[in-house]
Amino acid sequence: MTHYAMVIDLATCVGCNACMAACSLENQTPVWADHWRTKVHDREVGDGHGITRRFIPRLCNHCDNPPCMTVCPSGATYKTKEGVVLVEVERCLGCGACAMACPYDARYPATSDDIDTGKEYYGKLQRKSPSMDKCSFCYHRLLKEGEPACVQTCVGYARMFGDLDQPNDPVTQLVRSGKARPLMAHLGTRPNVYYIPER
Amino acid sequence: MAWHYPKLTRRGFMWATGGGLAGLSLLKPLDLVSEAWATVKDKDQNQEEVVHSICNFCSSLCNIKATVVGKGKDRRIVKLDGNPNSTLNRGKMCARGQAGVRQVYDVDRIKTPMIRVEGSKRGEGKFRTATWAEAWSYIESKSKAAKIQPWEWTMVGGWTSCVFYMNWAVPFALSNGVPNIVASPMQHCVASGHLGTDSVTGNFNIHDEVLPDFDNANYILFIANNASIGAVSTSRMVRFATGRKRGARVVALDTRLSETAAKADEWIRIRPGTDLDFLIAVMQVMMEEGWYDADFIRNHTNLPFLVQRAADGQWQLSTDPAGHPLVLDEMSGEVVALPSYSNQNALDVGGRKIKPALTVAENLAVAGKPVMTVFQAQKLEIKDKTPEAASKVTGIPAEVIRRIAEEFSHAGRPIIDPGWHGARYANINMLRRTQAMLQTLVGGIDRKGGWIMAAEYRHKITNWHKAKSEGKAMPGPLMTTMAGVPFVAELIKALSNPDTFPHKHPAWSFVFAAQERAAGREGVAVPALADTGLREAVEGKVMLNGEPYLARAILINAANPVRHYYPDSNWKEIMAHKNMELVVLVDVLPSDTVPYADVILPNPTYLERDEPTLYGNGVNHDLALVTRFRAIDPLYDTLETPDILLKMSQIISGSDENFHKMLEGLSGIPAAATRTAFEKYKAEGVNSPFSRACRDTSFSSTAERIHVSRDKLYTELKEQGIYFEERRDELLHAHSMPRHMAVPTTSGRLEFFGTLFQWLQTMGGKGASFNVLASTMPAQCRENKSMADALEPNEFYFTYGKTPTVSYGSTNSNNPVLAAINRFKKDIYTGIWIHPDRAKVLKIKTGDPIRLTNSRSGQQATGTAYVTAQLHPDSLFLHSSFGVENKALRLSYGIGTATNKLIPNWVEPVVAGFRSQEFTIKIEKI
Amino acid sequence: MDILTFTTQQHWTTWFAVYLFLGGMGAAVVAVSFLTHMYLREEKELVMWGALSGVAMMVVGSGMLFLHLLNKWAIFYIVSPYGVFHKPDSWIAWGSQFIVWIQIAAVLYALPYMVEKPRLLGWPVVGNVLKMPIVLQVAGVAKKIHPILGWVGIVTGIGTAVYTGLLLQSFPAVTLWHNPAVPILFTVSAFSTAMAWLLIVMYTFIYHRVDHSIRALYERIDLGLITAELIIVFSFFNFTLSGSEGGYRSAEMLWGSNGWLFGFVLFGLIVPLAMELKCVFGSWSGKAPIVTASLLVLNGGFQLRAYFMAAGIYAYPW
Ligand SMILES: Nc1nc2c(c(=O)[nH]1)N[C@H]1C(S)=C(S)[C@@H](COP(=O)(O)OP(=O)(O)OC[C@H]3O[C@@H](n4cnc5c(=O)[nH]c(N)nc54)[C@H](O)[C@@H]3O)O[C@H]1N2
Ligand SMILES: Nc1nc2c(c(=O)[nH]1)N[C@H]1C(S)=C(S)[C@@H](COP(=O)(O)OP(=O)(O)OC[C@H]3O[C@@H](n4cnc5c(=O)[nH]c(N)nc54)[C@H](O)[C@@H]3O)O[C@H]1N2
Ligand code: SF4
Ligand code: SF4
Ligand code: SF4
Ligand code: SF4
Ligand code: SF4
Ligand SMILES: [Mo]
Questions:
Q1: Chain B residues lying within 8 Å of A32, measured CB to CB
Q2: Most B CBs within 10 Å: which of A16, A105, A121, as the mutation test of the B interface?
Q3: Would you say B458 and B735 are in contact if contact means Cβ atoms under 8 Å apart?
């Protein structure tokens, strides 16, 4: 079996935003509305001489217990056998419940206006109808190129992608060793995106 | 942004709009039906193809692949990625590179030639579209009517023009008698700064020659680096990240917590302009404590060379009567002569094995004159430049400086990054030079875990040595086979020598510099490819042989001087001047310089181009060839650079005969074969037939040179995007410099005693900048004040740096994806950084509009405050990427503050590097 | 990693409070009027008013939601009964069914009376529809299965009211919402506002036609509900004060804003409670005080939801 997961190494993320750019072009997201499937935050932490600058990439965590899926009334949000949480565009009402339920702010609306703008913008648009949107772990790429667009371009090797069912996968080892930890685990969402803290 | 209830009720938000839009969207599915049909119809339009190319957004020159979908006219580039076959960028690309595809489809592109509307003034930006024929005839009739002479032309180019078209641009200039070239990277980085490094290593390549081996380093020290590493030069970043993951300790000297500094284990928040003091103190400690690789410096540097004081107190090398440098042999205790040019000091001129001393007795004399080694002289020069002394001006405790010296020298495989952007302070050359010296002291030159020379550069030097050993001056055509300081020297000679051209006009920059010196002012020693003197030439103030040497016409290709040079008003006034007869500009987007042109010629974007030749692989350690393959046919009525230069040759010289000849002589492009191919493609109606012809012959001659079939070379490049000739490890094994091969300095050794600066003194250089040894050189931000003296409450040192998402002050701030990221990070990227301690006193908060005034020049600009503790309280920081003034760049117009509204035209005396931070800024709330 | 951002979502804003308010109240109105009709007294006027005004509220309320759907055509997936089989774990799937069926039940329950009501028959369009033979036939059937319809209405009505709270409770990232008191609070509030609305109806539109004892009963029940609501609200305050920073911020935001303090707690609960106390046990009589108190309760009901949406604070580690 396959169980996809991502590890993000905060020690080498330089906040370059290449992942944002790559993702938006790969997945044609409505950047004009400041909507991205992944964002990299740039935050000041601490004060005085202890000041640090933290870059925090975030995206859908493809939770194993995804509240977004539970609340979804139409079943548009579903989980693949590989553990990827996806939205079936045609089935999605765009009610927004999933966005409310997501503790990671991973979802945004792709509206019909966005579709109009997107056609001008991207030429041919993959999307045919509006829906809630979010990171898909680049499911469409996984068979072809093996890894998501953001991972492939990450100049800091901060984003790593792997299969937790493969014990030798470096990602699996980072997760099992406890070096990489999920965000807000106490919520019981069981995320599949893990973070290695800065050193 | 959170929505707050009280606000919401007042605005009754989302009611009306939400409802209205919702209503409309009910109609959408009708569209779906027609789209579904469209999908059925063009199923085979979804065919994907991968095309290889080179990124054009910065001079990191990443190798990329474009995914193209569809056929014929519907072909569309959908995605760019790093080329996974590339060992340079390792399949990665930064945000700018990723967004590159949007440049092709930028709706604001220049789509046809344009001519300034009759009666309008330059700068008003009123243009009419024109055909190429109209554009050419406009240029031709204008230059005839105004009788523009060849030397009255000035060519202006950016890094794109240098890297990709240098082999056309220089022959163009020389064949048409144009001595004047301004290249935008020179005064900002390539000359200013790099020359310091190069004086030690003998390097110098167009766009970088050293790529440190961060992968294998265990200690990395960054000095004023950011965009060159983590924000972002991909080839460096991927290596840095790997090194860091492998456990390298990282220390960054920066005035602010830059992206790169944020990844360091230790951020040293140094006071602006004082890095040199810091590093000289580090050097002082290392020399005093003996923390250096004694064998390496004894054997491969000129540190053991003997020096003496000349009558004027200047240091000079002691030589034997034949001019050979002298050293004291520790084995025999005798002073012996070394070969003048060699990679090592282990054998004397007679071939005897010796051990040169780094330190000699105080009473040693040669020919009656007291001598000491360069090592001792250098030590003496900085004897009292201790960490304690440095701590006052840098604001960094002496223990920290001492500790860094110890860590760096004891790490095993330490790297002090050479640095990239120059300018800022007159001391930048000295700073970069000191960095090179520190790297030399630990023996970290051209070895694993140290600085490693670019393979392309190494290859040229190897061939040059081979040619020299065969008694030839050059291994082949100047442009394609020469490198390092010898290459620069050739270029400088050509541009500064009145005898280069029959018309006896050297470049106006050199004439102006001599004129300044004659008038008792500080003239620039090597104003090569610099803009110093242009203004005076336009105004008729540069005199040659008693006559005004006028600059009356400009050809700008891929450069944006109005935004990139200091101050912005300078170039505006130059181009708008009444003496200026003709401004021709080539670009892809309406930069801030575009409104000042008479004729605008559109280039195809890089993804629409096959380039006219093959290129080396930039700073890669592996020797490889790359080129571009066009991803799609040009969308608009555009022409490539070689074709434009060919046509311009016909206009300026009445014929392109000489251009062809020079192309053959200087760049090795065979005239006859190229012309035949050109005629053929022209007849076939191929777009940019000359470029295509050059590409043809380049493929043939390159295949011949590397002994493979043309087909194999072509197929490999087409399919892999990169053709490897030789790998790093083999190259280092056989040709590491200076361990196995001399570096192209005067002596072949790494030079602490700077013979380059000695030479520049003969060209008129005077003062601390030309010191043959390294020492401190205080930045002069205020008259007669030290950097450590207290600032007024509203006074700050000015600092700037590049944004991860923008190249230079370039048009790519208009790229929709990048513009969207910039909006997302608006405060950080487009705000003016101020420390909270200072902001509090001035009652300034993030988002407040403020006015900035340069206290030296009085220049003013406005901007928005971003209050953050991530910088030195003495400094203001501004990203140097914004301030677009041309409304035609619709997404970036009016955003942020332009640095060049605040920076005056003040240059240092070596290469006219900009002293772009050597002043203070006063701010007030508005 | 430590939390760096506290924020409120942008997806469901004021319009959603309207949906929760009108949906919950409408459903409770239907349930209460049916219960009254089935077990207390056959007040035709009340049942018509209850059913129709309840339906109207729910139409407007769920209309809000519908208008904000990105893809209106996909509504099909949740209105068809198959929806809950497909997604039994989704409260919205259940809620949608409740809302659909309660409206059907309500209209059918009222239909036998409507076809007899001269004033309605006199209305354009409506009158014509009511006079259609098929409608009359349906009304006949409805009359026969009145108890079943009534129970469908009551169950789905309570279901809908509870659902408006369950919905918020199913968002785990927000301390304020993610706890079992929310459905109780919203149910109590839904019924309290329903009482208030029916009291207004009975005191104004159909004053003489409805028995005084019903009004008195409603007033007493409402007193109980408001008291219960007050208790829940204050226990909420206590709950959010410790345990999570997000909860604390919610408390801070709610109890620091005048709208919540005065608009909801004081004028939405305490004042109407006092006024109704005075009406029931004290000296006040006449319509005005009780209508005023009821209007305050209605406003409070809306404020509660609006503030609950606004103060639903998410805490993010970035
Ligand atoms: N304000 C400001 N000025 C700076 C800097 C800065 O950061 N800020 N950085 C300095 C440094 S370090 C450097 S190296 C220089 C670099 O300066 P340049 O090399 O001049 O920089 P670019 O912005 O890449 O290129 C300038 C112009 O080339 C155009 N261009 C892009 N692609 C093409 C093309 O394919 N064909 C043609 N014909 N034109 C094209 C762009 O639209 C732009 O107008 O700038 C220096 N000046
Ligand atoms: N995003 C992006 N990347 C690029 C380019 C680009 O245009 N955009 N261009 C490429 C080119 S041509 C160049 S030249 C390089 C330039 O790359 P770098 O040389 O790294 O230049 P900057 O990022 O401008 O500045 C580096 C840092 O210097 C700091 N600084 C300023 N003054 C001082 C000082 O006095 N002391 C110290 N210690 N630090 C100081 C600034 O805060 C900034 O963080 O980038 C290359 N990479
Ligand atoms: S991160 Fe959010 S959207 Fe993604 S699976 Fe988890 S709950 Fe769902
Ligand atoms: S917006 Fe779409 S995916 Fe999200 S809950 Fe509603 S129907 Fe499901
Ligand atoms: S995995 Fe794909 S969809 Fe998700 S953030 Fe990365 S690029 Fe975007
Ligand atoms: S591409 Fe990698 S290094 Fe750059 S911001 Fe994204 S995660 Fe960080
Ligand atoms: S570093 Fe970025 S902009 Fe520069 S060449 Fe590479 S991908 Fe292009
Ligand atoms: Mo540069």
A1: 816, 820
A2: A16
A3: yes
Closest to C219 in 3D by CA, of C160, C166, C275, C303: C275
Please enumerate residues of A whose Cβ is less than 8 A from a Cβ of C.
41, 43, 45, 56, 58, 67, 70-76, 90-97, 99-105, 109-112, 129-132, 183-184, 187-189, 195, 197
The pLDDT tens digits for B108-148 are: 999 999 999 999 999 999 999 999 999 999 999 999 999 99
CATH number where A42 lies: 3.30.70.20
Q: Is B412 helix (H, G, I), strand (E, B) or coil?
A: coil
Q: What is d(CA B569, CA B580) in angstroms, rounded to the nearest whole number?
A: 15
- How many angstroms does the Cα of residue B454 sit away from the middle of ligand 7? 17
Residue C246: HSE in the Cβ half-sphere, 13 Å Cα cutoff: 24
The residue range of the domain holding A15 is 4-196
Kindly report the protein residue whose alpha carbon is nearest to atom 6 of ligand 6.
Answer: A19
Answering whether pTM is above 0.80, one says yes
- ω into A109 cis (within 30 of 0): no
CA distance B96 to B822: 12
How far apart are alpha carbons B207 and B618 in whole angstroms?
A: 8
Check whether B56 has a pLDDT greater than 60.
yes
- Segment 121-140 of chain A within 8 Å of chain B by CB: 121-124, 128-130
Q: Is the pLDDT of residue B29 over 80?
A: no
Provide the 3-class DSSP secondary structure of residue B822. helix
The answer to whether the Cβ–Cβ distance between C74 and A92 falls below 8 Å is yes
Q: Angle B663-B665-B666 (CA atoms, 0-180°, nearest 5)?
A: 70
Residues 6+ apart with CB under 8 A from B611: B54, B164, B627, B628, B691, B695
Local structure of A4: helix, strand or coil: strand
Structurally, how many domains does chain A consist of?
Answer: 1
For C137, residues 6+ apart whose C-beta sits below 8 A from its C-beta are: none
Looking at residue B34, its pLDDT comes to: 47
What phi, psi does A146 have (nearest 5°)? Answer: 85, -25
- CATH number for C90: 1.20.1630.10
Alpha-carbon gap, residue B394 to B426, rounded angstroms: 17
CA distance B343 to B745: 10
How confident is the model over C104-122, as pLDDT tens digits? 999 999 999 999 988 889 8
Q: What is the mean pLDDT of residues B470-485?
A: 87
Number of domains present in the structure of chain C: 1
Residue ID of nearest Cα to ligand 3 atom 4: A60
pLDDT at B33: 46
Give per-residue burial for B212-233: e unless 16+ CB within 10 Å, then b: bbbbbbebbbbbbbbbbbbbbb
Residue B414 tokens, joined: 């330490």
What is the rounded average pLDDT of the residues C226-240? 92
The range of the structural domain enclosing residue C135 comes to 5-316
**A135: Cβ below 6 Å to ligand 6?**
no
How many other CB atoms are there within 10 angstroms of residue B361's CB atom? 10
